[in-house]
Amino acid sequence: MVRSQAQTTCWDHPKMTELYQALADLNNIRFSAYRTAMKLRHVQKALRLDLLKLSSLVDVFREQELQHAEHVMDVVEVIHALTSLYEKLEEERSVLINIPLCVDMCLNWLLNVYDSGRNGKMRVLSFKMSLVILCNADIQEKYKYLFRQVCGPGGLTDQKHLSLLLHEAIQIPRQLGEVAAFGGSNVEPSVRSCFRMAPGKSAIEVSHFLEWMGLEPQSVVWLPVLHRVTVAETANHQARCYICKQCPIKGFRYRSLKQFNVDICQTCFLTGRTTKGKKLHYPIMEYYTPTTSGEKMRDFAKTLKNKFRSKQYFSKHPQRGYLPVQSVLEVESSET
Q1: pLDDT tens, 91-148?
Q2: How far is CA 42 from the centre of its chain?
Q3: For the chain, how are helix, strand and coil distributed in percent, rounded to 5?
Q4: Residues 6+ apart with CB under 8 A from 51
Q5: For residue 14, is pLDDT > 60?
Q6: How far from chain centre, in Å, is Cα 136?
Q7: Residue 258: pLDDT above 80?
Q8: pTM
Q9: 3-state secondary structure the chain
Q10: Closest by Cα among 144, 170, 168, 169 to 157
């Protein structure tokens, strides 16, 4: 079965082909960070990695002696490590897992992301990156673990090693056909942006990296969004969607901070669905957990303020959530 995705042709497991077809259904989501995150959530569940704890993953890396990020693994080593990982998962979670299918699917995904030419080899760092990003762990713990993979003995990393880390990360949206929105494959602007956290220094420590990641830089904004997507899945908001009338709103809830009592469900907001005569006014607040009474009061006060603000105010204060890291000259594609 041949599939052409992101300029590569490769052989996919029939179940993988089914998964890619399901991902195509998410292309109607207007915002690339959300589209990418929701596609990744599908992949994470299909590979059963949403059940896998970071500590279990680290144990498997240690058992398989995958300590050197720069080392290269062949397919046999990858299969061996994946088999060990899914056996551990089945044992720890006491759930029945189709281990051969999961190993096949996960191998297929890893090769599509990191070995599209099918040379049968990938870096240890690539293997770890994919699994750590898709495991079930606190996002700060993921950031710390990934940073440690490119650190020297003193706990510092230089621009070259940070470039390597960000290059590995950007391959994930690239495989999903979403790389242009995150600055293309040129990670240098992101590296420079991160090093601004430590002016004049030739190496950064983990605190600088965490501070930068906390600003949700453009090149990796899809990762914190994936975590919000996961949390939002279980949220029920006691509100009615202004457009489709769904009540309660499940998942993300969006509220206009310019109009009173205008709540919108995630499907209507993310796909741009509107009804005649009902125009949505920005700025918009996103909730991925049910709101407290304090938050409701705060938003009411904001809405009141915004009522008296002009269009010029909002054009001067755009609601851009992430840290842009690219200058216009460096953008690979006009799609950004």
Answers
A1: 999 889 999 999 999 999 999 999 988 899 999 999 999 999 999 999 999 999 999 9
A2: 12
A3: 55, 10, 35
A4: 89, 93, 95, 136
A5: yes
A6: 13
A7: no
A8: 0.81
A9: CEEEECCEEEECCHHHHHHHHHHHHHHHCCCHHHHHHHHHHHHHHHCCHHHCEHHHHHHHHHHCCCCCCCCEEEHHHHHHHHHHHHHHHHHHHCCCCCHHHHHHHHHHHHHHHHCCCCCCEEEHHHHHHHHHHHCECCHHHHHHHHHHCCCCCCCCEEHHHHHHHHHHHHHHHHHCCCHHHHCCCCCHHHHHHHHCCCCCCCEECHHHHHHHHHCCEHHHCHHHHHHHHHHHCCCEECCCCCCCCCCCEECCEEEECCCCCCEEEHHHHHHCCCECCECCCCCEEEECCCCCHHHHHHHHHHHHHHHCCCHHHHHHCCCCCCECCCCHHHCCCCCC
A10: 144
> Which residues lie across from 263 on neighbouring strands?
255
Residue found under tokens 């699994």: 131
Tokens 């990020």 map to which residue? 69
- Cα dihedral: 213, 214, 218, 220 (round 10): 50
